[in-house]
Amino acid sequence: QVQLVESGGGLVQPGGSLRLSCAASGSIFRLYAMGWYRQAPGKQRDMVATISIGGSTNYADPVKGRFTISRDNAKNTVYLQMNSLKPEDTAVYYCNAYYSVTRLTLWGQGTQVTVSS
Q: Which pLDDT tens digit goes with each residue over 6-31?
């Protein structure tokens, strides 16, 4: 079973950039669709970006043109490059893995992103 560990969160000023990483254990990472979700205090967890097994990507409207999701199957890692960050991007960001054969969904522990001057 894949385990997920996020890193790269922190405090950044508005307009700045961060890159989140999610390292996955296990040898079948390439068979999982991957995604990033975020949850702000008092709000539900929302999809930010997803990337399929084949590399197709999907983005939530608020981050289109600013965020980029990518995956490196050789390193068992998925990334979220976040540019032009806004205060409303402040949230805990969670890595997600989905295995369609068994409908298994896995979550990382989350990493805090704070955008503030």
A: 999 999 999 999 999 999 987 788 89
